[in-house]
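Hello again,

I reread your note about wanting to compare the complex against the isolated chains. To keep things tidy I'm splitting this into two emails, and this first one only covers the full assembly. Below are the input lines as submitted, including protein chains and any nucleic acid or small-molecule components. They are followed by the predicted structure of everything together. The single-chain runs will come separately.
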Amino acid sequence: MTNTPTEVIFRIRRFDPAVDGEPHWEEHRLSYTAGMTVLDGLRKIKETASPTLAWRSSCRMGVCGSCGMFVNGRPRLACNTQVTELDTNLVLVAPLPNFTTIRDLVPDLMPMFDAHVALHPYIIRDDVDEQYGPAGEFVQSIHEVEQYLQFSYCIKCGCCMAACPTYATDPTYSGPMPLSQAHRYNVDTRDGGFKARRKDLAGERGPWRCHYAGECSRVCPKGVDPAKAIQLMKRELVLDYLHLLRHGCPAKVVPRPAGATRRDGIPDAPAPTIANAPRM
Amino acid sequence: MRDQRWWTWHVAAGLVILVFLGLHMVIMHLDAVVGIFNPHGGHPIEWANVVERAKSAFFMVTYIVLLGAALFHGLYGLRNILFELNPASALKRGLNIILVAGGFGLFALGTWAAWQSFVLATTHVIAHTL
Amino acid sequence: MLEYKGRPNRLGIWGWLGGGRWGAERYLYTLHRLTGLGLLAYFLMHIFVTSARALGQQAWEQAMATVTGPIFTLGEYAVFVAFAFHAINGIRLVLIELGISVGKPIEPVYPYRTSVDVQRPLAVGVMLVAAILVVLGGLDFFVLK
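Full-complex prediction:
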């Protein structure tokens, strides 16, 4: 908007399962304050008008991924969305689609997390002892880090899942977030778990139901570009089927050089307080 | 488990169709602009032209390849669309059977037609009227 | 996890159609599906009709007679248009889904280009080629007899 608005109208989709049969819209008028985000508006409404309004938020600065909502027809983070960037003074706030609504603006994200866990989103290596009692550092070049760094910025907000047309009709599809995170670990050179993940990725849990609508990448608030990750993963899986995929060894550990001593004034690390870390 | 393989074949079939169906479209619908493989002039679907192509081993083989690729590509695509609408698993099993059976049945029909017309054309049983 | 009485909130098939606030690629995806279904429906009938050539000239000319007429010509042109779009967009999808024209992983510093931005010139080029084919086909169908 070229002119700063003086008044903003919030229309919020309310639903209390204990009381309502169907959701309904509730309208509130607020005076605009400089830099007002959708989250600021929700807080004001809860403080002054509607104390029963429920939503999730935490960091209020776009890093925790809690406040994913459907604002003016697009999945966005409420804390990251300035009211002025919506180009209208009518702000429609609804819960994130493609997830069951628990109450008001709170979606049930557990199906997304279940799909995420099913694709083993962690480093899988043979040298388990090394991971729990590290003797040195993993070797990884800057080029190797670049292959997965973008996809590691995911904050699990669920906006991509809400935008995906396949996930809109098919709840068994893994979805952009779990798939892009599986790719993030597949291309991380410290990981040796491609074969373990491939068992799931070759079948129904894989990226085969993605047809590149690209919406997930358009709405991602962190620039993770899950669509790109999924296409790169398809390429890997096709090459794997054709037996053309070169599997690098998981990154080696570089032990401390023999005879290396600490510089003066740097104390040793304190003894571990947990004797035996629980192993997954 | 097998989606990884089927999808790869789906893409490969798409590329095969691009080449052969592209050629088919050029023969049938761009003949006024480009004009190939219709040696008797006139309409591409006139009997004379059909017999000329039926005689050709190249056309017989490529029609069968195109038929197989297009049936697989199309029916797998249809399966994708239907399965994404999240039907019950009994319905999924039924759809699998119908699509596979229908696909093989139509492939058999088309292959018979291509082979039969090749045999008849090369043995001059069917001929064009001059 | 606590038990709760929630309300399903899936967009369902509306999610395939979008609502005007979605990007062009989502519509290309929906159109690719629609043209695919149209082509498949035509193709299944086409196998039956063209198999008549194995039964001789009379059978063939009878089969062709049933599919002649202005409505059929229009229908066949629609199939040609569907093919032009589906095939050329298909080339674009092959390039994208094999990870060729989506760009490399980057450090997402504003203003970054997502894979959607990287493939946008390809999408535009693809639509232009499809449009040219549609025009050429239109010439053949309706103008140059």
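For quick reference: The domain at 7-107 of chain A is CATH 3.10.20.30 (Ubiquitin-like (UB roll)).

B.
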